[in-house]
Amino acid sequence: MNFNKVAFERSFGISSQLPPSTLPEVAFAGRSNVGKSSMLNALFGRKSLAKVSQKPGKTSTINFFATDTARFVDLPGYGYARVAKSEKGRWAELIEGYFNQDRNFALVVSLVDIRHEAQQLDLNMIGFLQEAGLPFAVVLTKADKLSKNQQNKQAALLRRQLALPDDVPMLVTSSEKKIGFDNLRKLIEQ
Ligand code: GTP
Ligand code: MG
Questions:
Q1: pTM for this model (two decimals)
Q2: Which residue range or ranges hold the EngB-type G domain (predicted)?
Q3: For a FRET experiment, which of 12, 31, 100, 109 has its CA 20 to 30 Å from that of 124?
Q4: What is the predicted pLDDT for the residue at 174?
């Protein structure tokens, strides 16, 4: 795949608007502010392909980006408490609506902040992916915030807490320092 050539396609505010999947899809899911949109930018070496913010709740629609051979999907985050109830419901509809469709899921990248213990909503997400039989990987974000030693400790702790089977890949990344992206690109290409 050519990671140097990517284009924004469209945003969707309701899952029933989503077109059928015509390309294999790589979706980015995780809590609000975990770094989904930043990861897409780092993956493609682009500064503002996807909109990023310090404030959680930035991505409020499903956003499609396309390369020559795949579609990349930036999803709204889950678990942001300080958003209006109506918005929360709409985001949940988007995320669940997307995953419940009959789509060509090539890989779900499940992002988890490397600094924290496993959260209930992450356990729910990963449980869902396993039950649905979707191909997924856990990608730990913001590794630049920890020492190498702490990164290894947290990765082992999170693998245990998330009860990941051995065959589920776990990557340590930093979008800020561009760490782990060769491995992520390899995983996506597989
Ligand atoms: P929502 O769209 O709100 O769900 O958030 P998101 O998961 O898309 O996160 P986003 O990419 O907008 O990043 C949230 C914040 O985390 C921003 O301030 C980013 O600069 C920061 N961030 C993302 N990745 C990293 C990283 O690898 N290291 C550090 N230090 N900060 C990061
Ligand atoms: Mg976002």
A1: 0.96
A2: 22-190
A3: 12
A4: 98
